[in-house]
From TrEMBL:
Plays a major role in regulating hemoglobin oxygen affinity by controlling the levels of its allosteric effector 2,3-bisphosphoglycerate (2,3-BPG). Also exhibits mutase (EC 5.4.2.11) activity. The active site is at 11 (tele-phosphohistidine intermediate), 89 (proton donor/acceptor). It comes from Lates calcarifer (Barramundi). The gene is BPGM. GO terms for biological process: glycolytic process. CDD domains: HP_PGM_like. Belongs to the phosphoglycerate mutase family. BPG-dependent PGAM subfamily. It comes from the Eukaryota. This is Phosphoglycerate mutase. It catalyses: (2R)-3-phospho-glyceroyl phosphate = (2R)-2,3-bisphosphoglycerate + H(+); (2R)-2-phosphoglycerate = (2R)-3-phosphoglycerate. Substrate binds at residues 10-17, 62, 89-92, 116-117, 189-190. The record marks 188 as: Transition state stabilizer. Its EC number is 5.4.2.11, 5.4.2.4. HAMAP family: PGAM_GpmA. The keyword Isomerase applies.
Amino acid sequence: MSKYKLFLLRHGEGAWNKENRFCSWVDQKLSEDGVKEAQDCGRLLKEQGYKFDLVFTSILSRSIQTAWLVLEAMGQEWVPVVKSWRLNERHYGSLIGLNRAEMALQHGEEKVKLWRRSYDITPPQIDESHPYFLEIYNDRRYTTCDVPQENLPRAESLKEVLDRLLPYWDSTVVPEIRKGRTVLISAHGNSCRALLKHLEGISDEDIASVTLPTGIPVLLELDENLRPVKPRQLLGDQAKIQAAIKKVEDQGKAKPST
């Protein structure tokens, strides 16, 4: 029997998603298409009669902006939004800002796929010479967060994303779900994949093939032990969802620059 409903949402398309660049912890707003994706998502959820009691986001603008647009489209702007860096996208280290297709040309598609999709392989760490280092680590959202700055990651595998996400999930999100509240987590491709791995018991190998397109809500129906009682549901037009999944998977394929 389903006791709880949990919704996961990868934010709408961001400016660097559009440019096929590793965005990670660099703060980006939604693209025009991303705004539309978030609004369409909210309208879909409203049409299907869903109501949220609480929304959790990362501290990156594209995640927060998506949550706001979804709630606005649903007519539920009053619903509280709680933010934490622990829901941030995976930290891609020195790959931040680089084009995925160009990296595939340079290093090979398999290497880029390992960096993007594997469970326990960490990309090269960011250092102080990186063009986006200061933009990230001088940002007040990280100088005031709940861990010392020197303990913030410089690069992460998906496993390390799950390691920093789980304490927040257990201490902050789970108690709200157990109160019977319907929760939306508006986050990122990898923070949502990490949580899916945990909840669904996906193997280290199989998580590499789990793809979440931008702006598509994922419904999980959970039992009293917060285990899924049926397969996850990606809500919306299924043909469009499959096309969006393929688009994400193709991002790491080598394409000569024009």
